[in-house]
Amino acid sequence: MKQQLGTTLAELLLALAVLGVLISLSASGFSTLIANTRMTSQVNDLVHTLHLARQKSRALGVDISLCKSANGLQCSSTADWHDGWLLFANRDRDEPPQIDPTEQLLVTSGSLHGLHISANRRAFSMRPFGKRATNGTITFCDRRGVSSARAIVLSYTGKPRVIGAGASNRSLTCPAEL
Q1: pTM recorded for the entire structure
Q2: Distances in Å between the alpha carbon of 19 and those of 11, 26, 30, 96, 113?
Q3: CATH number at residue 74
Q4: Above pLDDT 90, what percent of the chain?
């Protein structure tokens, strides 16, 4: 009698069960990787905007303002930071900053889905020639909460630095639900 080669139905089902467990374990790690990448990308985008603001302030010799904006055209006191922001040359130094038709729009950023961004200032201004800039903190949160939050701390000189939750003895706060 010839011996049959192949797998039994039981062996096939066991292999599929093991494969299913491995896929489910890797999927949770993959979603964490995606969330970390999204957070890092958005934080870096705003850090780049702040560095650009410092550089343009010195190059143009005028105040450069960053404000929250829901429509990408005007600063808004009622918008949230995660609705978007504007960076512009604030030549008339109005407070709170408002972009005028004669002022140059440098950067605009649209709505960020899945992230909550809050700040302790309505707007930030960089001033030329080492003059005092607006200091403050901009906090980024996602559905994972405070444990994964990051913040950009902006010094009086306009230099940004990124901190994570629990760094520098600062307590970051996130909304209860996102």
Answers
A1: 0.81
A2: 12, 11, 16, 58, 33
A3: 3.55.40.10
A4: 54
